[in-house]
Amino acid sequence: MSKIIVVTGASSGIGALSARALARAGHTVYAGMRDTGGRNAPQVEAAAEFAKEHGVDLRTVELDVSGQDSADAAIGSIVAEQGRLDVVVHNAGHMALGPAEAFTPEQLAELYDTNAIGAQRVNRAALPHLRAQRDGLLVWVSSSSVRGGTPPYLAPYFAAKAAMDSLAVSYAAELARFGIDTTIVVPGAFTAGTNHFPHAGRPADQAVEAAYEERYAGLGDHVGRKLAEITPPGADVAKVAEELARVVGLPKGERPFRVHIDPADDG
Ligand code: NDP
Description:
The chain is an alpha/beta fold. Helices cover 48% and strands 14% of the residues.
């Protein structure tokens, strides 16, 4: 059955491709992006072109998960247009790279804000509608890194994803009684088709870039080498998007609670 879906962070990578895969599956999809009138204007145009080319219902909506007003306005406009909202895909996120002694509390707060608190802003806007419908689905794009570990210099990002994952697990139990389903998508490291990893070579705060360069020269290369050890070259986020869309299409009751997507798995 066709659903009304919003995907956060849909200007690139997993979000952009999931929005397209879901639209191709016959759903009405709102690709949530921040700065649609500025930096992401080309992504808005690309989504419109995709919709035209494939004859699918893919729309874009301004949605910056770092602001409650933005989340409220985005969800409000979708419900005003469609009369309902069925699925929220919590995908927006980013990482930052730095050694343990250098991350400031402000930098950690910023990572938690985008990766975990941002989803909560969208929940605050969307859940009243899903609860009133007594039907809906939250899809959380978590990460295999929530268990911590490699590559190094990413601990605050891993911790922020772990916070998001924990919210997903606890809310699932709370929301099931209102007919709201939960699926947690858990990708390993996929380095192709995403802007995720170039960001990892960037210090958490541009202002301290020079200091990092001086003190931690080659740190980004080190992470790159570690990544190459744990993920096959060219592992493409398209695989994550296809799997996410497949799971959303399953009937309630048949949807897995947690879906691990391994870049090394050819299946
Ligand atoms: P990308 O960097 O390609 O995509 C991240 C998306 O999040 C972009 O659309 C970006 O928008 C958006 N975003 C960042 N901040 C905000 C914000 N404040 N409001 C709205 N959107 C925002 O990376 P991926 O597609 O690879 O990652 C998507 C998700 O998957 C992330 O949550 C990531 O943690 C997770 N993940 C990725 C893995 C991978 O291997 N690629 C592995 C495990 C998890 P903009 O373009 O405007 O910056």
